[in-house]
Amino acid sequence: MSRDLVTVDLPASVTAADGEGGLPVLRVRTAVATGEVYLHGAHVTAFTPAGQHPVIWMSRASVFAPERPIRGGVPICFPWFGPGREPGMSPAHGFARLADWTLVGAEDADGVVTLTFRLTEADVAGLPGSGVWRFPFELTYAVTFGPQLTLALTARNTGTEQCSFEEALHSYLHVRDVTAVTVEGLDGAAYLDKAAGGTHAVQSGPVVFTGETDRVYRSTGTATVVDPGARTVVVAKEASANTVVWNPWSAKAAAMADYDDAEWPTMVCVETANALEDAIILRAGESHTMTARIAATSA
Asked: CA-to-CA distance for 214 and 248, rounded, in angstroms?
């Protein structure tokens, strides 16, 4: 692994290695939890608390390459979500998940490990999309592996002008069978239904899955994934106006080269976001922190 991307000493519970595709990876192993983060995109690719099955889902067909996003795990969407709010905002979900982040902090407190990563505009120069959003910035991302997975993304406007951005922690979660899963906590929330062509609706009862699902909810609260006979996974959050719920279903899964055709029943995305009309606005020198906490409880 290049030492240029790791600027601190690592505790014994954290190992630096060359991962899939030769990309640098940090692996965490304690009595409390195990986990994994690639410096490419500061991308969490594994989290398993002690006594549990893996919580974070990864595609078997994911591509690990410098110019490609990783499929599964927890991609960071910044500074736009999906296609963005204006024409020409490409690639999808912005450039943060394509960049190499620098590890600037690593701590182990009684088996709870926090890794802190940093990204600035200098780190994304030349990447696809870096010329579309031209504001100076600093991102700090704290990833804590403990009984729960805690993800805290801080964006700071280091320039002299006001800026606006979208963000999401695009968490893919393991489930046994998405057709039996429900997502609770969104009853009564308005949402944009992207799978239905951008129509608007209001959620009634728990979310169920009967086809391609791609919804951006206006909700600041906690969402709970109920996987019958297996467990519940709680996604709690702070400073987030939106919850995104996504499953590609069979046809869309088959159309994605980095997604195994048969995998779609085993995952659901419940994402922590600020997107669309809930984009964040920062004046010069201001910062904003969005936090997600993912915890699993056996049935």
From this structure: 8
Active-site residue list: 170, 271
**Any idea what the CATH number is for the domain that residue 203 is in?**
2.70.98.10
Bridging pattern class, strands 167-169 and 207-208: unpaired
pLDDT band of 299, cuts 50, 70, 90: confident
User: How many domains does the chain contain in total?
Assistant: 1
φ, ψ at 5 (rounded to 5°): -95, -5
Residue 6 has a pLDDT of 87
Instruction: Determine the Cα–Cα distance for residues 118 and 142; give it in Å rounded to an integer.
Output: 9
272 neighbors 243 (Cβ within 8 angstroms): yes
- Torsion sign across C-alpha atoms 199, 204, 207, 212: negative
Cα torsion angle, 18, 22, 24, 25, sign: negative
Cα–Cα dist 174/111, whole Å: 24
Residue 71 and residue 259 in contact, taking contact as beta carbons nearer than 8 Å: yes
> How many whole angstroms from its chain centre is CA 277?
20
Sign of CA dihedral 17, 21, 23, 25: negative
Query: Domain range for residue 34?
Result: 3-298
The token pair at 141 is 């991302």
Check pLDDT > 80 for residue 147: yes
Instruction: Tell how many helices (H) and how many strands (E) occur in the chain.
Output: 1, 23
Q: What is the pLDDT of residues 255-266, one digit of tens each?
A: 999 999 999 999
Cα 195–Cα 201–Cα 203 angle in degrees, nearest 5: 100
Q: Report the predicted TM-score, pTM, of the whole model to 2 decimal places.
A: 0.97
Give the 3-state secondary structure of residue 267.
strand
Residue 19, classed as helix, strand or coil, is coil
Grade residue 3 by pLDDT with cuts at 50, 70 and 90: low
- Read off the pLDDT band of 4 (50, 70, 90): confident
Residue type for 43, please?
A: H
Which amino acid is it at 189?
A
Alpha carbon 86 to chain centroid, angstroms: 22
